[in-house]
């Protein structure tokens, strides 16, 4: 059982992200997870249009909200923002420090509970509506559960 526990540990990651994708805005929390799943399905049909991608098997979903509504993106991480397909958005999230953990699409609620507890236990504070939180889904049609990385901006 210890090998599973090790996978669930949290770490600090400092990174800048560039993304190209689409977004949706919905009431929070009542509009989720349905809004998130819908925009991801829409984006999966158009992923092949994105150039300069880092990894086409990793669907990235940065999101930002204010407690009333949340804007949730379905994107690919890219190396440059030179080419942005029609009706998509390209943007850069500046270098930031994140707490990161890995869970699966079926254990995501537990993953969030765990990472926020880890942030608190380690003396950090999660950033609020001024920073993007990030979910990264490792797409695998053969898997019953897909790996998900949760990245929470901290200070």
UniProtKB/TrEMBL annotation:
Residue ranges of every copy of the AraC effector-binding domain listed in the record: 8-155
Stored Pfam families: Cass2
SUPFAM superfamilies reported for this sequence: Probable bacterial effector-binding domain
InterPro entries reported for this sequence: AraC_E-bd, Cass2, Reg_factor_effector_dom_sf
Name used for this protein in its record: Effector binding domain-containing protein
């Amino acid at each position: 059982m210890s090998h599973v526990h090790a996978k669930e540990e949290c770490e600090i990651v400092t990174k800048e992200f560039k993304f190209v994708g689409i977004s949706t805005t919905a009431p929070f929390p009542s509009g989720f997870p349905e809004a998130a799943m819908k925009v991801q399905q829409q984006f999966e049909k158009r992923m092949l249009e994105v150039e300069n991608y880092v990894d086409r098997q990793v669907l990235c979903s940065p999101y930002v909200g204010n407690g009333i509504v949340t804007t949730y993106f379905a994107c690919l991480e890219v190396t440059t923002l030179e080419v942005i397909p029609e009706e998509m958005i390209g943007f850069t999230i500046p270098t930031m420090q994140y707490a990161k953990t890995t869970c699966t699409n079926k254990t995501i609620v537990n993953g969030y509970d765990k990472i926020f507890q880890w942030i608190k236990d380690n003396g950090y504070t999660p950033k609020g509506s001024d920073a993007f939180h990030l979910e990264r889904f490792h797409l695998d049609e053969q898997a019953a559960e897909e790996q998900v990385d949760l990245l929470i901006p901290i200070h």
